[in-house]
User: Fold these one by one.
Assistant:
Number 1:
Amino acid sequence: MKMLLPAVLVASTLVAGCGDRTQRPPNLIVIFADDLGYGDLSVQGHPTIRTPHLDKMANEGLRFTQFYTGASVCTPSRAAILTGRLPVRSGMADDRVRVIFPPSQGGLPADEVTLAEMLQEAGYATGIIGKWHLGHQEGHLPTDHGFDYYYGIPYSNDMSPATTSWGRAQTYPPLPLMRNAQVIEEEPNQRYITRRYTEEATAFIERHAERPFFLFVPHSMPHIPIFASDAFEGTSARGLYGDVIEELDWSVGEILASVREAQLENNTLVVFTSDNGPWLTVNIAGGSAGLLKDGKGTTWEGGMRVPMIAWWPGTIQPGGVTDALATTMDLFATAAMMADVAAPEDRILDSIDLMPVLEDPDAAVRNTVFYYRGTRLFAVRNGPWKVHYITQSAYVGDAPVVHEAPLLFHLDRDPSERFDVAEDYPDTVAAIGALAQAHRVRLVAAPSQLRIPEWE
Ligand code: MG
């Protein structure tokens, strides 16, 4: 017995990782901050923001140093994480790089298969607590896209007559707080929004301790306008932005504690990441991409490379750091593997199963990352190399700059994208150019995969 026990344990761990249906499939919790930058956590090197819960989560789990979002603004980024597809394929990216606003009609097309739909079909309970931003009119809510339960503000927290910073206040209805398809409150006090989301999230975990669940927690913070509750306001050396991040950190601690209380920690993958980089044009109310260049709205690294911590005691070895390339879209194939369901085969997915990296930080699963701004391919990363074809600053009204001679950066040697070395490595520029061209040809060759937005 003594000889057999370890072998049996190892085997069952491996089988559980592959989603053996004789056991309960693992739960998935995705915590998704809004506009939190690569450099905004203490575990990511911020000197004055304290994030002890996230630091501990990283110490017990795996931290990714080269993890990307599918887009550098809210709506397409959310489409990417929930469909496992580049937003250009789901109709959630357009040439003007917009997001959904309160007057917008439409949203994520009904025939897109979301992570929630896939897991719901596999018998999971599915909940979303927080910001949706993929359509808020009838037929486009989370409950129309595979979520059993919704609680939150359905779009950005600045789209309100009370708090907008965009001069459009008169066009906005009061900011709604929704439960499922009902507005339950107008203009909720945003100082308590992180706390309320957290209470809802932990209650969801408690309610579903007895069956597999997928819980998506897309926070409204730290998207501007930023707010923190009494317990956090005025407590951080970084000012209000730091207070907000430290409250989000508290929230992560509460969620992990409720997973442990339900004794689900060995059967739950918890992921923390962000929808895009920091909003640098809002000055001190915006975050930091650390040593990465620029931020939200751009295809420089600071716009699209975000913190990512994965936690799954017993499956992920503690204290790991991986430089494997990965994206938010990869969670789709990872979830399919965990739940032992087939991902949709009638469409192109941009998703690669991350289980090999979760089990071994030295594993590599992808070599290439495509950086889109709207519907245009701005840059391509292959291995350590990144080529920019077009660059554009965020929100300052400048035109895109098309680089007839593409820019080339070596991101391992030059993570801040300071030194263009294209002249020294023409073969690398050409090889990545061929990759980009093959990608474009494949996109255009499958017109049904290149969708026109229908949410004007
Ligand atoms: Mg955002």
Number 2:
Amino acid sequence: MSTPAPGLNEVLQRTFAFPKPHFLSVTDLNEVEVANLLDLAESFVALNRQTSKKLDLLAGRTLMNLFFENSTRTQSSFELAGKRLGADVVNMSPRSSSIAKGETLIDTAVTLNAMQPDLLVVRHASSGAASLLSQKVTCSVVNAGDGQHEHPTQALLDALSMRRACGRIAGLKVAICGDIAHSRVARSNIAMLQMLGAEVRLVGPPTLMPSQVDRWNVAVHHDMRKGIAGCDVVMMLRLQLERMDGVMAPSQREYFRFWGLDREKLAHAAPNVKVMHPGPMNRGVEIDSDVADDLTVSLIQDQVEMGVAARMAVLATLAARLDNER
Ligand code: NCD
């Protein structure tokens, strides 16, 4: 690169080797490692806002995106993250419907591994899929969402968005609201936020709470206004109809009345409350457009921007680990 981009030295100083060969779960990291990743991601935020966004930290490396489930934000942000760091990026979206899931996954993993990728980003409808795949390949695996289990890079980008907007994470009161039962975003965020010292509350109808929620060490509220009272961050989740068998699915109008975030309910939160949503949003179901589009409270677009930076930090550190192993 002829003129070093501002922030490049910072990036190089902050890049370290990822502590594990794979990033499968928030529990792969400790508090200090998360803080270091967030600091590194900050320097990618600066880089991504420039005209020239390219670095060569992943030059010569191959990144494969293997998405068995649909994705807009996650897949494109991993693709951009890989390309901005100089990797060759291949996107694959196999259809998993006709073949038994376990077989598809393992066959595909072994086939792809033979092409010598360095990094494999995987999303799959089955909990544990990324971990299973990591045992069958020789490259680094990143979990981009496995069933309702975990979505660790989402938790990282959410932490980055929160830290930028609120100046800290420790001590924040965060309400995660809606369809907790089916949400990998909720599971990863609870683990991440508790590690970073936030107070997490879960808010939603009893039918959309996980059956063993009493073992999760979080306060559970079944009244939206009481649940978000005094909260610094209100994180809304999508009603994940594709994971419901129809029994739990309420009428969407009823759902909005009790659990949809609108101005009136939001007024119960802290005065400087920030609203988050991982997307895709069901407008008028779990969130009112009036709130989602108000940039003075909504971090939803910031979350998308931070997704690229956070994933660059993960890929750069995983690649640094691969470099050390050479
Ligand atoms: C989430 C996911 O796929 O788990 N979305 C995302 O990654 N941006 C949440 C969802 O699908 O509701």
